[in-house]
Amino acid sequence: MFSEIDRHISRCTPVSDEELQIFNSRLKHMSVKKKTMLLRQGEVCRFEAYIVKGCVKKYYIDQNGDQVILQFAVEDWWISDIGSFSEQRPSNLFIETLEDTELLTVDFESKEKLFREIPKLERAFRIMVQRAYSVLESRFYATVSHSAESRYQEFLKRYPSLPQRVPQQQIASYLGITPESLSRIKTQMLKKK
């Protein structure tokens, strides 16, 4: 159960088998059904979750009552509300499973204790946060500077399996376009082939 997350951590920094065993002992395994709410707006996010199997979305509800998808997380990805988790303050976001999902979670106190016991883990998590921030910056830049078609092509590169796993309406929300625009883009791309 821990082999994937151990490889994930080891890609960030060298960690001994003994240190990984300590890390694994602090993780909680969860199996949850599709459409399970892991976090609701107004709650404090009590976890950082590594996706072993499944698909999860993070979103907020805009002033029109529509979901605005901020992130999809699939196997070998992490999901949380970093601000709510690290500051232990109420979240503005929702986190929901899109498929039956298996997660390995760590709570705030366990993570802080792990950092004190195994300082290398703090480095590993810092590297993961830096990578996530880099992805976020790239996505923000693409949103303001690239066409919708270009953003969709980048989405397909980053998430090649998601179009078969996620409704088109949610992909459109993630891209910041309407479902109708996404349909037109897909039709145009097919014509170009």
Q: Any descriptors?
A:
single chain; Jelly Rolls; globular; alpha+beta; 4-stranded antiparallel sheet; 193 residues
Mind sketching the topology for me?
Elements: H1 3-12, H2 17-25, E1 28-32, E2 37-39, E3 48-53, E4 56-61, E5 67-73, E6 78-79, H3 82-87, E7 94-97, E8 101-106, H4 108-117, H5 119-145, H6 148-158, H7 168-175, H8 179-192
Antiparallel strand pairs: 1-8, 2-7, 3-6, 3-8, 4-5, 4-7
Structural notes for this entry:
The protein has 193 residues and is an alpha+beta fold. It has a domain at 3-114: Sandwich (Jelly Rolls). The chain is 49% helix and 20% strand. The chain is built from 8 helices and 8 strands. It has helices at 3-12, 17-25, 82-87, 108-117, 119-145, 148-158, 168-175, 179-192, and strands spanning 28-32, 37-39, 48-53, 56-61, 67-73, 78-79, 94-97, 101-106. The strands form 2 sheets. Strands 1-8-3-6 form a 4-stranded antiparallel sheet. Strand 4 and strand 5 form a beta hairpin. Helix 1 (3-12) crosses helix 5, helix 4 (108-117) packs across helix 5 (119-145) and helix 7 (168-175) crosses helix 8 (179-192). The radius of gyration is 18 Å and the shape is globular.
